[in-house]
Amino acid sequence: MTASRTPSPLLPGLVHACAGLLALGCLASVLWSGPVQRPVALAFGALVALGELTRRAGAESRESAPLGAAGALAYALLGNVAGQPARHGVAQTVTVVLAASLLGGIPYVARGRGPLLDHLARRVLTVAFAAVCFQPLSGQGVFRDWSGPAHALTLVALLALTALCDAVLTAAPAHARTGWPFGPLLREELRGMVGITSAVCATGAVMALAVAVAGLWALPVFCVPLLLTQLSYRRYAAVRATYRQTIASLARATEIAGYTPAGHARRVAELSGAVGRDLGLSGAELTVLEYAALMHDIGQLSLVDPVPAGATAALPAAEQRRIALLGGAVVRQTGVDAAVAVVVERQADPCREQPVTARIVRTVNAYEEKSRDAGPGGALTALEELRLATADDYAPDVVEALARVLSRGGLTSPAAG
C-alpha cells in the first residue's frame, strides 16, 4: 500500500502562533511609542473594517473580504499622504489592520460565523510582509526621486510577492490539515489570483498612489468600484449555491423513488471530491466531479425494474454502459454543464478510455456499494477487491488515492455516515 500523507495540525498552529506573536509585538510597539498620523490610521482602519463588515461569510472564494484586503495592502504600501511622508511604519500598519479586522468581524462573531483564525493570521502575516518590504525603504527616502511609472511598477512587484506569500500561507496549512498534495493546492491558489485577487492587488496599489497625491479623499473614490464588485460577486455566489442545491435535489430523485439507498449520492460525491483533491485536480475539475458524482445514478430512473439496492457495479458491462448513457441523456436535458453529462456517460466505459473524473466516480461508487452492506471490516474488504480487480476495471492510481483518503479519515463503512 502507498504510504499515506497523515494530516497534522502542527503547521496551522505554528502559523497562528507566528501571527499572534507578531501582532502582540506590533501592538506593544505602538502602545509604547504612540500612534502617528491618527487621521490616516482612522481612515484606513475604517476602510478595512467596512470591508470585513461586507465580507462574504462562508463563500467559496479564497478572498472573502476583498475591500478590506485592498485597504490593508494600500496602508502597508503608503509612502506619502498628499505629498507629505507617511510615518506609520510596520508596527502601526499591522496594529491598525488587525484592530479594524477584529472590529469589522464583531457581527459575525455574534452569529458564530467568524472571523476565523486562518483569515486573521493570513491578513496579519501578508500585511506585515508587504509593510516590511516597503516601509523601511520608503522611510529612508528610496522612492522619493522615483518617477510615477517606476513607483507604480515597484508597488505591483511587491504586491505580486505579497500575493505569492498569501497563497503559500493558504496552501501550506490546508496541506498539513488534510494531507492533500501541496503542489496542486498551491497551483489552485495561484489560479485564483487571476480573479478577485488581481482586483484586490490593483486596487490596493491605486489607492496607495492616489492617496500619495490627492490625500485621504481618494479612498472613497477608489473603494466604491471594488465594493460594488464585491456585492455583485455575493449575488453570483448565491446563484451558484442555488445551482448546487438544485443538482443535489435532482440527485435525490433516485433515493426518493427507491432506486438507490439514502445518502448514496452524497457519500459518493464527498469521497470523490477527496480523491480528486488527492490526485491534484483543479477547482473546475473538482466542481464537474462533484456534480457528476451526485448525478451518477440518475440513469436508473429510466429502468422498468430497479437494480437491487441500486448496486450497478455488479451488473454486466453492457448494462452498466446502457444505464450510464441513459443518465447522461437525463443530465443533458436538465441544462447542467455538458462536461458533467460526459462524466456520467463515460463512468462505465473501459477504464483506459475514461477521463480521470469518470475513473474516480466509477471507483468510489464501486467501493461504496461493496462496503456498505459488508458489516465490520467491509471497508477493508471492498478496498482489497478494488485492488485485485483488473486495470481495465479500476485505475490503480485512483484506487491508491482512495486508500490514502480512507487511511486519513479512518477505514469506516460509508453506510455509517
Which SSEs are present, and which pair or pack?
Layout: H1 10-33, H2 38-53, H3 66-76, E1 80-81, E2 84-85, H4 89-104, H5 106-110, H6 117-139, H7 148-178, H8 182-214, H9 218-251, H10 253-256, H11 264-278, H12 283-294, H13 317-334, H14 338-346, H15 356-372, H16 378-388, H17 396-409
Antiparallel strand pairs: 1-2
Explain what this protein looks like in three dimensions.
This protein has 417 residues and is mainly alpha-helical. Helix content is 70%, strand content 1%. It is built from 17 helices and 2 strands. The chain has helices spanning 10-33, 38-53, 66-76, 89-104, 106-110, 117-139, 148-178, 182-214, 218-251, 253-256, 264-278, 283-294, 317-334, 338-346, 356-372, 378-388, 396-409; strands at residues 80-81, 84-85. Strand 1 and strand 2 (84-85) form a beta hairpin. Helix 1 (10-33) packs across helix 7 (148-178). 44% of the residues are buried.
Describe this structure in a few short sentences.
This protein is an all-alpha fold and 417 residues long. The protein has helices spanning 10-33, 38-53, 66-76, 89-104, 106-110, 117-139, 148-178, 182-214, 218-251, 253-256, 264-278, 283-294, 317-334, 338-346, 356-372, 378-388, 396-409; strands at 80-81, 84-85.
List the keywords.
1% strand, 2 strands, mainly alpha, 417 residues, elongated, two-stranded antiparallel sheet
Please, what is the average pLDDT? 79
The biggest beta sheet reads:
2 strands, antiparallel
Helix content: over 70%
H/I helix tally = 17
Radius of gyration over C-alpha positions, nearest whole angstrom: 26 Å
**Structural class by secondary-structure content:** mainly alpha
